[in-house]
Amino acid sequence: MTRTCDPCNKDLGSRLEAALVDWYDMAFVRVTFEGEGVRGRRRSARLLYRETPDGKFGLIPDTGKSDPAIEDILHGDEFAMTHTPLDKTIVQLAALKSAYLAACLHLGRVPETPSAKQIRADLLAARDAPKGSHPTSTAAAQVKLWRTYADPNGPVLALLENSDATEFADRHLISLAGTVIVSWPFPEMSPIAH
Q1: Are 55 and 106 in contact (CB under 8 A)?
Q2: pLDDT band at 166; cut points 50, 70, 90
Q3: For the chain, which terminal residue's Cβ has fewer other Cβ atoms within 10 angstroms, N or C?
Q4: What is the CA radius of gyration of the chain?
Q5: Is 184 helix (H, G, I), strand (E, B) or coil?
Q6: Do 103 and 185 touch, CB atoms closer than 8 A?
Q7: CA 62 to CA 29: how far, in whole Å?
Q8: Of all helices (H) and strands (E), which one includes residue 21?
Q9: Cα angle: 133, vertex 44, 130; to 5 degrees
Q10: Nearest Cα residue to 81 out of 122, 116, 114, 33
């Protein structure tokens, strides 16, 4: 829907967007189990966290293969599960990238506001950061993000108005395919008067 350079699209996008998908899916990633009767740690597929209406939870294997010994571990008396927690900064950077591109599409141009310049600088810094490093972003830290828990529906991009808010960033929200809602990324600019 919009043009980005190859490194921003492929390199940055693949690193950030996987984390956003894991956040949206409420997934546990890089999961291992260990328990009595089975030597060593065993790798599990990505697990989805789900709750029942009465507050109980379950972990559901998603994609990928799990070590068959995990079934033996789970049938034992005690076991330990570890996983790599999602990096909140990476999730917020992914949301910022999506909100920035969506806002540019809505406006029909690339804005030159102070916040837009800061967003571009933060995204470029994240793109150019060494693999495995944890980039920081002042712009991403301000992004608000919600899940709708709905299947993709409606337009790919929609502008929503929050009638309870008074600031541009909180008053206007961006819906991404009806599944993720992100705050408007340019606090000094209304998406309406463009």
Answers
A1: no
A2: low
A3: N
A4: 20
A5: coil
A6: yes
A7: 10
A8: helix 13-25
A9: 10
A10: 33
**Buried-state track 34-60, b at ≥16 Cβ within 10 A, e below 16:** bbeebeebbebbbbbeeeeeeeeeeee
Which has the closest alpha carbon to 139: 191, 182, 194?
182
Structure tokens at 187: 């606090």
pTM: 0.83
DSSP symbol at 130: P
Quick one: DSSP state of residue 83?
E
pLDDT tens by residue, 113-140: 999 999 999 999 998 888 877 788 999 9
Q: Under a CB-based contact definition with an 8 Å cutoff, are residues 145 and 184 in contact?
A: no
In sequence order, the 6+-apart residues with CB closer than 8 A to the CB of 125 are 135, 137
What the block records as the tokens of 163 is: 């009638």
Cβ(174)–Cβ(147) under 8 Å?
no
Structure-block tokens of residue 15: 């690193």
Give me the phi and psi of 4, to 5 degrees please.
-135, 160
